[in-house]
Write a structure and sequence with these properties.
Elements: H1 19-33, E1 38-42, E2 45-50, H2 54-70, E3 75-80, E4 87-92, H3 95-104, H4 106-112
Antiparallel strand pairs: 1-2, 2-4, 3-4
Helix pairs in contact: 1-2
Length: 113
């Protein structure tokens, strides 16, 4: 039996929002990411550390729900440290995704790396 391999096409690196939706979404993302405490560069993306409050959890979940619709090229990870401590958000993907994250969150990355 011959095994066939399938190539999975990557989603294009393009936001699915336009105009006013994009402006509004940018404001919401900016508000959540104001709370970033630390940023780490990963081989395939970045991870962002946030305080472990319930308000931050709510904001991050809202961010991820919206981003998976408008930016389907991300791989998201949400990591909760023990004892209601820090929360990490990992945005990962191809080299193009990493470049997109670096451009979109450049100021935050520069301030915390």
């Amino acid at each position: 039996m011959i095994e066939q391999t399938r190539t999975v096409e990557e989603a294009p690196i393009a936001c699915m929002l336009t105009g006013d939706e994009l402006t509004e979404r940018g404001s919401e993302v900016g508000a959540v990411f104001q709370a970033v405490e630390q940023v780490r560069e990963l081989a395939d993306g970045y991870e962002f550390r946030f305080p472990g409050s319930d308000a931050i959890v709510s904001g991050l979940l809202g961010f991820m729900l919206a981003e998976r619709r408008c930016c389907p090229f991300f791989t998201f990870e949400l990591v909760f440290e023990p004892n209601l401590s820090a929360i990490w958000v990992r945005l990962r993907g191809s080299t193009a995704v990493k470049e997109f994250v670096a451009a979109a969150w450049g100021e935050i990355i520069a301030a915390h790396v």
